[in-house]
Each structure stands twice: as C-alpha cells, then as structure tokens.
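Holo model, S-adenosyl-L-homocysteine. Inputs:
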Amino acid sequence: MKIVYLLVFLVLFPASSHSQPLDLYARKRQVMVERDIKGRGVKDKKVLEAMGKAPRHLFVDEYLRDRAYEDYPLPIGEGQTISQPYVVALMTEALGLKPSHRVLEIGTGSGYQAAILAEIVKEVYTIEIRKGLADKAAKRLTALGYKNVSVKYADGYLGWKEFAPFDAIIITASANHIPPPLIKQLKEGGRLIIPLGSTVFFQTLTLVTKNKGELDVEQLIPVAFVPMIGEAQKKKE
Ligand code: SAH
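Output:
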C-alpha cells in the first residue's frame, strides 16, 4: 500500500520543485514571443526561435526574474538597462543575419542581445565600457554555454580591428553620430544598426547599409537608449 502512495506522489510531483519555475519561464517566454514580438510584425524565423530559446530571466538579477518576459526594459546595474524584448528582436531582424555571419555588438550590458545573436550566427564579438558589466556578462555567457561569443572590456567607439570586417554591427547605446571606425569595420553590403539622436530622452533607430562605399540610411522607430560614453561624447558634439 505504501508503495502505491509513493508512486502516486511521484506522478503528481515529478522531479523536484525546482523544475516548476523553469516551465513557468518557458511559458512566459512563449507568450512574449507570440504577443510582443510576432504580434508586432517580426517575422524572421531565426529571430523568433532565438527569442523563444534564450533564457532572458537569467540575464537579470534574481529579484527581477519574474518580470524578465514583460514588455519593457529592466535595470541591470550601474544605471544601465537590458532593452525591451521587442526592440532586441526588431534590431536583430533588421540586420538580416545568416548563420555564417560574424557580428560586432557595442554595449554588451547584460549579454542578452549577444546571446540572441549567438543563437543565430557563427561568431559574436561584443564590447562593454563598464568593467563590472563586462566581467559579469562574460561569466554569465560562459556559464550558459555560449561558446561563440567573445567579450571585450573597452570603448566600443574604436570597434574591434583584430576581427574586422564584420557582416553586421549592432550598437545598443545611443550616439549623435555613427562612429567612423565602425563604418570602416563593416563589410561591403553589411548592415549596421544604431539608436541615433542628439537627446538623451529619445533617438531614432537607424539602419545603415554599406553600398559600394556609400551609406544607405533607413529610419525605423523612435527609441530610448542609454547614451554611449567615452570617445562618442568627445567628438562631433
Ligand atoms: N545590449 C545590452 C544592453 C545595452 S545597455 C543587453 O542586451 O543587455 C548599453 C550598454 O552600453 C551599457 O552596458 C553601457 O555601459 C554600454 N556602453 C556605453 N558606452 C559604451 C562604449 N563607448 N563602448 C562600449 N559599451 C558602451
């Protein structure tokens, strides 16, 4: 009789209670993809799959985990933020990524955008100017098994010459101009996306394609990003 009770217990409460939150986050993630990302017109399958896979709740502090799949940005420390999921998806889709691509990101922050890129492309290079954030993101990405991401603590204004040119460049901090070294490090036909604007309150998400040395410019949506610091603030004020 006791064995029967035990079996019933095991069927009703399989594994440990730890598996419950994981299922809960997976469900929240699926709702986020359907409602906030697909629902707003993002169509690229690779992007939708990546957003449905990367554990966004593990890129924020524990007290924010339950809110990780909501439709807004969240603080990641040092006054910085992880972008709203829709903005991450939109920017990623705009880059027109292919599995063979090598991508440069400026502004690693939590490492979440880098993880989304890493789900889609071969190699991701990401630069962060705040040491605390760079170290934390590098550790986190390694712990989560993202082997194709390299994190560097530096001013991203200068790009990462050693690994240039890149198929795509994504800048996740705002600036009032596109850093010229980044344009130089973009492949012919490559795409670069940046929140461009001269105010700290809002900018325009701007997509640039390098076309025979010229730049084709497309303005997407208004956004509010934290500013790019360092060299970007010294030039072209
Ligand atoms: N992509 C991040 C969020 C970016 S927040 C994520 O997925 O979580 C913007 C980040 O850009 C901040 O972490 C900030 O420290 C960093 N940043 C600002 N200026 C920079 C610069 N010149 N070079 C590299 N990173 C910079």
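The first strand starts at residue 74 and ends at 77. The pocket of S-adenosyl-L-homocysteine is lined by residues 76, 80-83, 106-107, 109-110, 112-113, 127-130, 133, 155-157, 172-173, 226, 228-230, 232 (CB under 6 Å).
Archived with the compound record.
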